[in-house]
Amino acid sequence: MSEHTLHFKPAEGFRARSKAVVDNPFLRQSFRGAMDFLMSKRAAQFPDPEELESLRNLGEAIRQYNLAKLPDLLERLEANLIRNGIKVHWAETPDEANAIILGIIQGHGATRMVKGKSMVSEEIELNHAAEAAGIEALESDMGEYIVQLANEKPSHIIMPAIHKTKEEIARLFHEKVPGVDYTDNVDALIQIGRNVLRQKFQEAEIGLSGVNFAVAETGTLCLVENEGNGRMCTTAPAVHIAITGIEKIVEKLEHVPPLLSLLTRSATGQNISTYFNMISSPRKPGEKDGPEEVHLVLLDNGRSQAYADEQLRKTLQCIRCGACMNHCPVYTRIGGHAYGTTYPGPIGKIVSPHMLGLDATAGLTTASSLCGACGEVCPVKIPIPDLLIRLRSEAFSAPHANPAMRGQGAGHSSLISAIWRGWALVYRSPALYRAVSWLGSRFGWLMPSRQGAWTTVREPLRPAPKRLRDQLKERNKA
Questions:
Q1: What are phi and psi of 294, to 5 degrees?
Q2: Cβ distance 357 to 7 under 8 Å?
Q3: Which residue in 139, 235, 290, 456 has a CA-CA distance of 20 to 30 Å to 372?
Q4: Is residue 301 left, alpha or beta, with left meaning phi > 0 and alpha meaning psi from -120 to 50?
Q5: What does each C-alpha distance from 223 to 46, 158, 211, 233, 345 come to in angstroms?
Q6: For the chain, how many helices (H) and strands (E)?
Q7: Do 368 and 330 touch, CB atoms closer than 8 A?
């Protein structure tokens, strides 16, 4: 598989980007407040723990059932889409996907494209490819529009501009949108964005969207959204191009409602999304709206690598709700841009290695406390901590023949491996463990006074009150 040239490389500068956020009290406070808000909204949507657990079990079962049948379902989806009049394209790499999409656009002599929210289009860096080909690609989701104006990547998969304040957005609009005066009134800012986008919907020849669920039995593309821009992108332009990963497929329509319920409640704390679009064909004779032509691009980009391994296949259960990010203590402190990947946070750490290779993402696998919060809130019960441990093993073990992943062994160090083997030997022997503990307690003064960034930001342990210590002593005596 050929490698895609990235404009933003995760292996370069991860520590520096993380430290920059940690050293910025305003950003840390902003992320903490936003994540607390999202966690509270999600919790309010699941007041009954038994109902939540039952729905999570159902969601997990649906995703695993469909992944088990994925090769057959993909063929069935393609056949039904073609029967419905939708053209299907297959892309193994980001470069192939970009070539297909740009080929469709150029084949129609088009130069303007409006885009609904699509993380897969971010994954393949379609905007860069379109710009290089002289094609205007405008994001119509408000958050995506903001980060596009700022020439940034999304910092969250559900709320791309969550790192921006209204004052920053006001300055951005004033500087980048012609004829706009500075205002930090939120309603006014939204109206400014709408005015720009409404004009573009009328002018664009091409509309592009993502896909939340593709239904094999009916050949239907399902799109979840809140702003209505997805509906405009898929109906106003003459040509609609949808792009999705090969894992976003379900066999039956009846599989969609449970997943939709989990998605909206886990992502934004909503009972249901504002819009739910179901696209099964181009405009038919007699219909007054809709595109004259519909295309679907099915992207692999490392997904088949994950699929080939029984444990790593669970990565593909993801429905892109972002709940794992909202509850992650690491993401909450460093935000999405520090990761340098399209998908940040816990899900990014298990998805990105398949897309970019472990040689580019080995360091991200260790950017976790393994507290387990991500696995506890995942609506489809992806065992993210277990997968992170597996990826760490793949990244830091010695290279070997027939690796399960591209870049296996990229982070291997003979010295570190020897240290861990020594620790394992000590840990297995009570006598050795006591001896090492005894030596450590007496020669601790040989350790550096500053032992790394963790010791500089964590709060020091405080001794228990004397009353509590006395109670513990009495309990031990008893």
A1: -130, 135
A2: no
A3: 456
A4: left
A5: 23, 14, 5, 11, 23
A6: 23, 10
A7: yes
pTM greater than the 0.90 cutoff? no
- Tell me the pLDDT of the chain (478 aa) as tens digits: 445 555 555 556 888 888 888 888 888 888 888 899 999 999 999 999 999 999 999 999 999 999 999 999 999 999 999 999 999 999 999 999 999 999 999 999 999 999 999 999 999 999 999 999 999 999 999 999 999 999 999 999 999 999 898 999 999 999 999 999 999 999 999 999 888 888 889 899 999 999 999 999 999 999 999 999 999 999 999 999 999 999 999 999 999 999 999 999 999 999 989 999 999 999 999 988 899 999 999 999 999 999 999 999 999 999 999 999 999 999 999 999 999 999 999 999 999 999 999 999 988 999 999 999 999 999 999 999 999 999 999 999 988 888 999 999 988 888 888 988 898 899 899 999 999 888 888 877 776 665 554 445 455 555 556 665 666 566 666 5
What's the rounded Cα separation, in Å, for the pair 340 and 180? 32
- Cα gap 125→200, rounded to integer Å: 21
Please count the other Cβ atoms lying within 10 Å of the Cβ belonging to residue 181: 9
Q: Cα separation of 305 and 230, whole Å?
A: 30
Amino acid at 215: V
Tell how far CA 33 is from the center of its chain. 20
C-alpha atoms less than 13 angstroms from C-alpha of 257 in its C-beta half-sphere: 2
DSSP alpha helices (H): ranges in 408-452? 414-428, 430-442
Distances (CA, A) of 152 to 165, 292, 379: 15, 33, 29
Alpha carbon of 318 to those of 3, 64, 334, 348: distances in Å? 24, 11, 22, 11
